[in-house]
Write a structure and sequence with these properties.
By secondary structure, this protein is α/β, with parallel strands linked by helices. It has 15 helices and 13 strands. The strands form two sheets. Strands 3-2-1-4-5-6-7 form a seven-stranded parallel sheet, sandwiched between helices. A six-stranded parallel sheet has the order 10-9-8-11-12-13, sandwiched between helices. The chain binds ligand GMT. The site of ligand GMT has 20 residues, from helix 1.
Length: 374
């Protein structure tokens, strides 16, 4: 198939999922055309089956807010015509599914069906805002196919948007070959030269991730045992986290790596992964850590319990309960095996439900159904 994929290229898990999906589909022989304002961060530009099409947004003094949605729709149509796309797959409803809807109308009577994948705040926060709700609901209803990344998100969409159409749950996935324990390239000894346990967090550092809680948890753990904390990512809460690191005099034990490529190499060096988010529709970073045999301490919110089983792959606590999270962290890291057994179980869970090898065919057969229907 020739598939156009649109996502946010630089920020957040929906872009990561879209890019990984494109690369997995390309590896299975499909032709992939990413359409966005910048190349997606994890995209392999050297894959001959993958092409990137930049959406140029023209600025003009009259435009306080350049109309990206329109430029995107135009580019979608252009790529449809030049590459004979079979379908478009947009990730994150706002505004991508609106652009796809316009592109489909412009392409008519030629056929350009589009699939919208809902990821999280497009439904739970942004989509339910009054200024976005009606148009998001409309573009979801108008999509030729709609998928949600967890059962939680499916239920929220039905509840918040009063949507009657069918929505397929196709969960996020991880490449189980790439993400594994042996992927560590010597980072553990670099960060923890005396074999101290390594706690890790990976996100876009937005308030919803509660990054300061990561530091609070680590401060309690560090008061009890030698340990290191590695933070991957960047975003608005970095300053607040850096402040807390200084406040607790943890500068020697906390590493801010910024945005990173090949995160599997770093995750494979961790002993424990922290995801204390206020809300997660899925928690992709936790899944990636699990595939690398890292036990998880996360919050019992949204779709996280569909990924992390409390007491099996790690532990779930209430948002903001840093004491309980730290108690579990100390409990795991004080075990004779330092949580290795739990980490191995976490990988088994990840493999059972979320391996790319199983999830990508679900997308392929969904595309086929959408094409047959349209
Ligand atoms: O909603 C967001 O935070 C943005 C979105 C993104 O683009 O990063 O994240 C959501 O999608 C991810 C990938 O499907 C999920 O793993 C995250 O749980 C989800 N975030 C939230 O629901 C807060």
């Amino acid at each position: 198939m020739r598939i156009g994929i649109t996502c946010y290229p630089t920020y957040g898990g929906s872009g990561v999922v879209a890019t990984e999906l494109g690369m997995e589909l390309a590896a299975r022989g499909h032709e992939i055309h990413f359409i966005s304002y910048a190349p997606p961060i994890r995209m392999n530009p050297n894959d001959p089956r993958i092409r990137f099409h930049e959406v140029e947004v023209v600025s003009y003094p009259l435009f306080d807010h350049p109309p990206y949605t329109l430029a995107l729709a135009t580019k979608m149509l252009e790529v449809f015509e030049s590459a004979s796309l079979d379908l478009l797959h947009v990730h994150y409803a706002i505004p991508h599914s609106v652009s796809a809807m316009l592109a489909r109308s412009m392409a008519a009577p030629r056929r350009l069906p589009f699939v919208t994948t809902l990821h999280g705040t497009d439904i739970t926060l942004v989509g339910s805002n009054r200024s976005y709700l009606p148009i998001t609901r409309f573009s979801i209803a108008q999509s030729d196919g709609v998928t949600a990344i967890s059962r939680y998100l499916l239920n929220q969409t039905i509840k918040e948007f009063d949507i009657k159409r069918p929505i397929e749950v196709i969960p996020n996935f991880v490449n189980c070959e790439l993400y594994n324990r042996t992927a560590d390239k010597g980072f553990a000894s670099q960060w923890a030269p005396y074999g101290e346990p390594i706690l890790m967090h990976l996100s876009n550092f937005r308030p919803v991730k509660r990054l300061p809680d990561v530091i609070e948890v680590f401060a309690i753990v560090r008061a009890k045992m030698p340990a290191k904390l590695v933070l991957i990512g960047d975003g608005p809460d970095r300053g607040a986290a850096e402040y807390l690191v200084r406040k607790y005099s943890l500068q020697k034990d906390v590493f801010f790596l910024g945005k990173q490529d090949n995160v599997y190499e770093k995750l494979a060096a961790a002993d424990l992964f922290l995801l204390p988010s206020q809300l997660e529709s899925f928690g992709l970073a936790a899944l990636e850590a699990m595939a690398c045999e890292v036990p998880i301490i996360a919050t019992n919110v949204g779709g996280v319990p569909e990924v992390v089983e409390h007491g099996v792959d790690g532990f779930l606590v209430e948002p903001g309960d840093v004491k309980e999270a730290a108690r579990y962290a100390i409990e795991i890291l004080s075990r004779a095996d330092r949580g290795r057994e739990m980490g191995k179980i976490a990988r088994i869970s990840a493999k059972k439900k979320f391996c790319a090898n199983d999830v990508i065919p679900a997308y392929e057969s969904y595309y086929k159904r959408v094409l047959d229907k349209s």
